[in-house]
Amino acid sequence: MSHICRRLLPLLALLLIALPASAQSVDEIITSYINARGGVDKIKSVKTERVTGTISFGPDADGPFVVQRKRPLKMHMEITLSGQTLIRVYDGKSSGWIYNPFTPNPSVKPMSEFELDNIGDEADFDGPFVDYKEKGNKIELIGKEEIQGSPAYKLKLTSKAGDVSFFYFDVSTALLLKWEGNRKINEKDVPWESFFHDFRDVNGLKYPFLVESDAPGTDQTQRITASKIEVNLPLEDSLFQKPNPPAAPAVSEAPKPN
Q: Residue 8: pLDDT band by 50, 70, 90 thresholds?
């Protein structure tokens, strides 16, 4: 009998050690994440937000960007590459516009139905986890995985529209380490993943200042580096209406011969 007890005791010890991790629920993980960011009240106190920085799509394909957002769900984004500025605007209700200078005969065009169906996720700076049930999101705890050397909880999120994505939260800090899902590129669903780094405090809230993304198995990459994040600054509603095309880049005249 004693030898059976000696074998059982180490097993019981392992079970007791593992119990706290397995006892974590979806809501506990989400609550820990929200608290690690600064708390739900602090998150909801942000009425406007501006993120300024640099975006890179690989060598010789980078430039400045600015994203401005305002409750409820208003967004104005500008990305400048090779001297040309791409603009995306959403009024927070039902209308959005895109100016893409890299298409033939560029002009300000209304967003497609597909783009409007998905723009809310970009414009919602609370993120999908604050009031996730009211937003129609369903979340499951898949388990634990190691992400870049850190143990992480893996959650599966199914949106109201049925889109599925996965989020990984650092077991130690409760902050978001990784997202993976699909992105629509050239009308095709492409597997995509993003890693979140360099969390800094902005007015009592944690923000990642570096987001590195890629399409696994391809050479498609994206690197977003924030240089400045501002909250609760005055933003006029007119910023979120149909934009005007940007002025054409100035062309310098060649010097006249003497």
A: very low
Here the tokens at position 177 are 């380490």
In a domain, 2, yes or no: no
User: Mean pLDDT across the stretch 211-227?
Assistant: 94
Query: Per-residue confidence at 16, pLDDT binned at 50, 70, 90?
Result: very low
Task: Give the separation between CA 34 and CA 45, rounded to whole angstroms.
Answer: 13
Q: Give bridge partners of residue 154 from the DSSP assignment.
A: 143, 168
**Is 31 inside any structural domain?**
no
- Give me the sign of the Cα torsion angle 239, 244, 80, 127: positive
Average pLDDT score, the chain: 88
> For position 77, what pLDDT does the model report?
97
Count of structural domains, the chain: 1
Integer Cα distance of 162 and 134 in angstroms: 15
Give the gyration radius of the chain's Cα atoms: 23
Other Cβ atoms within 10 Å of 168 Cβ, number = 25
Please report whether residue 149 resides in a domain: yes
Q: What is the pLDDT of residue 120?
A: 87
Give the CATH number of the domain where residue 109 resides: 2.50.20.10
Q: Determine the 3-state secondary structure of 30 from DSSP.
A: helix
User: Is 200 domain-assigned?
Assistant: yes
Domain span at residue 118 reads 36-231
